[in-house]
Every structure is written in structure tokens, then in C-alpha cells.
Specification:
The structure holds 2 protein chains of 2 kinds. By secondary structure, chain A is mainly α. Helices cover 86% and strands 0% of the residues of chain A. Chain A is built from 9 helices and no strands. The relative contact order of chain A is 0.08. Chain B is mainly α. In chain B, strand 2 and strand 3 form a beta hairpin. The chains are: A mainly alpha, B mainly alpha. Chains A and B meet through helix 1, helix 2, helix 3, helix 4 and helix 5 of A and helix 1, helix 2, helix 3, helix 4 and strand 1 of B.
Chain lengths: 204, 219
């Protein structure tokens, strides 16, 4: 047996609809708050980006100076070649032994291959590389390469997200204020009167 | 019709919210789905001993340059650093000083750049978190709009209400309500028996129905 009449079901639907409307309004209010936060974060990001550009310029200037001075020093490397080479021949075995000990203790895997590779590296290297701090320069250049790559990757993400968010936030819904006025406009629509003010239909 | 210009009538529920679902999802994918690994390991940042060791191991395996970091432990290698070639070329001393200063400066700026990159990455993580929140708060509304094709609907429509006396499968002391949210599939909720006239009744039913809907459509 149908214990609940159609009229009662209708009334229940009306009451339940009020709750759903309220929840939709709450969700939209929160969305607007999140929108403000996203915009704020984006402003901070832009200002950070200009600091990054400035720091990049300083870093690159210092790197250029470093490389230029290194070139000048390399050009005159023949001057103390003899004494430097003698020291290098004594430095190599110690460096190899210290490095292999470290590798076996800390890195653990593939010592044989690393040993052969290291020997080849040391034989091909020049003491001037150490003398001019070549390892530090190489490290800086490698960092520079990685930093550029990481910033490009992050920028790429931000660009794509920003373009979607701009489109989203330019929607009429986000540009109209205040929220309640917006919702009341649903009620004034002849076609949509039931959505957010279902009682008006019952009254009619 | 009280609208002065009918062609500018307010947008429909589905017209308004439907596109948001796709857009927010796209934004999240763009933020989270990039193939580049994150978070980035900052080489110039302060390392823990373990982390530092790992990066040296990597350098040794890669091209052996990591071994040169150990030059300080070998006397003869250190001597190379202090070789003075200025006797035959006085400009060398100055050049070495210049190299050291510019190297220190470059390392300082590289470290500063790393710090800024880390802050930048943090902004990205914040944005990603906000997008996730946006999705959680809003996804169910836009998905409801996605489901809704017809216009003349209540947001919530009750189709059947049953208690133990009318349907023996309903536990004693409970009421079972079947309803739809816009054009959604039928949602069945069971609530403790309260008078149907009580305002609390439909509020509890609607709350439970929305919870179920949101749960099912959580991304």
C-alpha cells in the first residue's frame, strides 16, 4: 500500500530541495574563497618569478666571469707544467684509493666497473683541472642546467593551469557579485523557477 | 516574464556548472601529471650527510668527477691547489684570485637561485593543493549538472518512502527513502524514524543523500 500520498512526497521534495540548494550555495561560497586564494598564490608566484629572473642574471654573470677567468688561466697552463705534473702523478693513486674506499663503504654496488672508469678518468685529466677548481665549475654548470630545466618544467605547468583557471574564473558565475543576488536571479527566470525556489511553483 | 531582455536570461544549472568539472580536472591534470619528477632535488641546498653521500655516489658512477671531491684528503692533491706559478707569469696570481672570487660569487647566487626555486616549487604545491580542494568542494555540483539534462526539476525528488509497517525489509524503527538529485540515479537512504512532518526528517534524508552522492563522485 502507498503509505505516503503524492502531496506529501511533493512537500518532502520541496523541503529536501531547500537543503540541497543551501549546500550548493555553501559549496559555491567556498569555491569563491578558494578562487581568491588561488589568485593570491598566483600573484605571489609572479613576484617570485621576477626575483628568480634577477637571481638568474646575477648567477649567469658570475658564471660567465668564472668561465672567462678559467679560460685565461688555461691559456697559461704550460708555465708550471713540470712541477704540477709531478704532483699530479703522486696525487692520482691517493685519490683513486680514497675514492674506491669511500665507494666500497658507502655506495656498495659495482666497484669493479667504477674502478676502471676512474683510472681512465684520472689518466685523461689534467692537474690544471684541480688547480683551476674545474670540479667546482663543472658542478655549477650542471646545477645551472638542472635549475633551468626544473624552472621550465614548473613554468610550463603553471602556464597551462593559469590558462585553464583564467578561463574558468572569467565565467559569468565568478564575475558576478554577490552570490545571493546571483541565486535570486535563478528565481526570476521563467524557465528555471523550480531550481532554487521550488515553492514559487507550488504557490502559483 | 519579468526579465527586461529575455535573450539575456540567466544561465541554466547545467549550462553554468557542467564545464567546470572538465576544466578543474584539466587544471589538476596539468599540475600533477607532468612527467618531470617532483619534488626536484636541489643540489646546492643544504644536504644531510646521507643525501650528500648519495649524490657523490651518483657522480662517481656517472663520470668519476665525484672522486675529485676527495682531493682534500690527499696531501699531493692539495699541493697542486697551492702551486704558485706567478714567478714566470705575474698575472696568474691575480687571475687565480679573480677565479676564486667569481667562483664563490657564482656558488652563492646558485644557492640563492635554488632557494628561490624551492619557494617557487612550494607555490606550485600550494596551487596543486588548492585545485584539489576546489575539486572536492565543487566536483559534485558540476557532476550533478553533468547528469542533468531536463530543466523542470526539483533539485531533490522523493519517489518512495517506506517504513517497517509498509515494507518488512525496512528495519523496525527506521524509514527508507528513495530519491533523486536532479537527474541522478535513484539514491536510497535509511534514516531513524522521525515524524515525516518534522523539518528534521527531510534535512537528515537530504544530508545523507548528498553525502552518498559526494562519496561516489569523489575524484
Amino acid at each position: 500500500d502507498q503509505a505516503v500520498s503524492d502531496r506529501e512526497l511533493q512537500e518532502m521534495s520541496t523541503e529536501g530541495s531547500k537543503y540541497v540548494n543551501k549546500e550548493i550555495k555553501n559549496a559555491l561560497k567556498e569555491v569563491k574563497q578558494i578562487k581568491t586564494l588561488i589568485e593570491h598564490t598566483n600573484d605571489e608566484r609572479k613576484s617570485l618569478l621576477s626575483s628568480l629572473e634577477e637571481a638568474k642574471k646575477q648567477k649567469e654573470d658570475a658564471l660567465t666571469d668564472t668561465k672567462e677567468t678559467e679560460m685565461k688561466l688555461k691559456a697559461s697552463q704550460g708555465v708550471c707544467n713540470e712541477s704540477m705534473m709531478a704532483l699530479w702523478e703522486e696525487c692520482k693513486p691517493c685519490l683513486k684509493q680514497t675514492c674506491m674506499k669511500f665507494y666500497a663503504r658507502v655506495c656498495r654496488s659495482g666497484s669493479g666497473l667504477v674502478g676502471r672508469q676512474l683510472e681512465e678518468f684520472l689518466n685523461q685529466s689534467s692537474p690544471f683541472y684541480l688547480w683551476t677548481n674545474g670540479d667546482r665549475i663543472d658542478s655549477l654548470l650542471e646545477n645551472d642546467r638542472q635549475q633551468t630545466h626544473v624552472l621550465d618544467a614548473m613554468e610550463d605547468r603553471f602556464k597551462r593551469v593559469s590558462s585553464i583557471m583564467d578561463e574558468l574564473f572569467q565565467d559569468r558565475f565568478f564575475t558576478r557579485e554577490p552570490l545571493d543576488t546571483y541565486f535570486s536571479s535563478f528565481g526570476s527566470s521563467p524557465r528555471r523557477s523550480l531550481y532554487f525556489s521550488p515553492k514559487s511553483r507550488l504557490a502559483r | 516574464n519579468i526579465m527586461p531582455f529575455p535573450m539575456f536570461r540567466p544561465p541554466h544549472f547545467q549550462d553554468m556548472f557542467q564545464p567546470f568539472f572538465d576544466m578543474i580536472s584539466q587544471a589538476q591534470q596539468a599540475m600533477d601529471g607532468h612527467p618531470h619528477r617532483l619534488p626536484y632535488e636541489f643540489p646546492m641546498a643544504e644536504f644531510t650527510a646521507d643525501h650528500d653521500n648519495r649524490s657523490v655516489c651518483k657522480e662517481i658512477r656517472h663520470n668519476s668527477t665525484g672522486c675529485l671531491r676527495m682531493k682534500d684528503q690527499c696531501e699531493k692533491c692539495q699541493e697542486i691547489l697551492s702551486v704558485d706559478c706567478s714567478a714566470s707569469d705575474p698575472s696568474q696570481n691575480q687571475l687565480r684570485q679573480e677565479l676564486n672570487s667569481s667562483l664563490q660569487l657564482a656558488e652563492k647566487f646558485s644557492k640563492l637561485y635554488d632557494d628561490l626555486l624551492q619557494s617557487y616549487q612550494q607555490k606550485m604545491l600550494n596551487t596543486s593543493f588548492l585545485l584539489k580542494q576546489l575539486n572536492e568542494q565543487f566536483n559534485w555540483v558540476s557532476q550533478l549538472a553533468n547528469l542533468t539534462q531536463r530543466e523542470e526539476l526539483y533539485p531533490l525528488q522523493v519517489t518512495t518512502v517506506a517504513s517497517h509497517s509498509s515494507d518488512s525489509s525496512v528495519p523496525t524503527g527506521f524509514t527508507r527513502v528513495v530519491l533523486k538529485l536532479f537527474d541522478s540515479y535513484p539514491i536510497m537512504v535509511t534514516v531513524p524514524e522521525v515524524s515525516w512532518d518534522s523539518p528534521m526528517f527531510m534535512e537528515t534524508v537530504a544530508e545523507k543523500a548528498l553525502q552518498e552522492y559526494r562519496q561516489k563522485h569523489r575524484v
